[in-house]
Amino acid sequence: MAKAPSDKLTPATRLVTGGRRKEWTGAVVNPPVWRASTILYENTAALAEGPKTNADGKFFYGRRGAPTQWALAEALTELEPGAAGTMLYPSGVAAIAGALLAVLRPGEVLLMTDNAYDPSRGLAKGLLREFGIETRFFDPLDVAAFEAAICPRSRAVLLEAPGSLTMEVCDVPALAAIARKHDLTSIIDNTWASPLGFPALARGCDISVMSLTKHVGGHSDLMMGSAAAGPEYYAQLRRTAQMLGQVVSPDDAALALRGLRTLGLRLERGASSALAIAKWLQGRSEVASVLCPLLSGAPGHDLWARDFTGGCGLFSFIFKGGDANTRNRFIDALCLFGIGYSWGGYESLVVPVDPAPYRSATPWPPATMDPADRYGVRLSVGLEDPADLIADLAQAFAAMAAA
Ligand SMILES: *Cc1c(COP(=O)(O)O)cnc(C)c1O
User: Fold this and answer.
1) How far is the CA of 20 from the centre of ligand 1 (A)?
2) Which of 261, 278, 311 is the last residue of a domain?
3) How confident is the model at residue 52 (pLDDT cuts 50, 70, 90)?
């Protein structure tokens, strides 16, 4: 079987072919699990050569990986148009930290979208602040305010679209263009869409981060993160990750590779089921707003339709009135939605959503919403039949009302 040039292939095909180099797979389909700390050298001369070539895909010592990790990194690079390479990290949070530490230095300012994943905020307010890096949060929907917030010490911006919990879609191409104009590195947490739904580097971002724990793993059994970038930033990410000693296990890399092969199908199925459920929720009297960018008329839908090529099964909705107890009765009555963190697995999940404590630049609920409507849930819609999921949600609404 000859190898097709990957730049001629569509993403669906690259999911299948990515990273499967003959020298890594041998005669089998998948790269085997190369468990390695020690790499053996032929002689002392070869050992002395080892450290001199710090290149991708070269054996040195286990911390620089072996073919299983290289195959996963290469497959991810092939999926991200404009990427020269992808670094792997032991979690999504480690990938965000790895990207921020690669570009920020003491005395500099990070701009962070106000709807960022809470641990990203925690890193900014904790370790980064202790290292003399200041973070300013901005309204993800106010492009002019973002530009106005840039000062001479600003060095990088962290975007997320849609944002965690509240799902606003920011104008990424506009924000990334402004960042570039002012010499800021733009980093995007692209976990929701993945490069299949949002080719972040092609849309103007410098570094595209994903929690592979979510969709790429896809089966709720591994933790991993990635950061992909063009040549210059990739070199910086790699240097920082090597100094921090970041490495992922080959067993987890093999699981992530297995998940990757079906990523496209799972994302499509999650998105189509989520859209069906979102439409159904929109017609329920208990629901004040459905925060699902896939849904026509929902907040963020227009930018999603303009900039994205896909989505996934993750969205939130807000109850009409009520309190936390009412909302929790609804969650506790669900049978097919597990209660737990994370998302992007094959099984459906639910968590309560009360974003107010995680905002500082913008109020929640926003002015466009009734202040009485503040309690919500986030659903991660899995691969179950959407009709069963809708029936489950319906009986949970009934249980909520009956109490
Ligand atoms: C879960 C998540 C992360 C962190 O990923 P982990 O692998 O759990 O560390 C980062 N960003 C977003 C948007 C997430 O939902």
Assistant:
1) 27
2) 261
3) confident
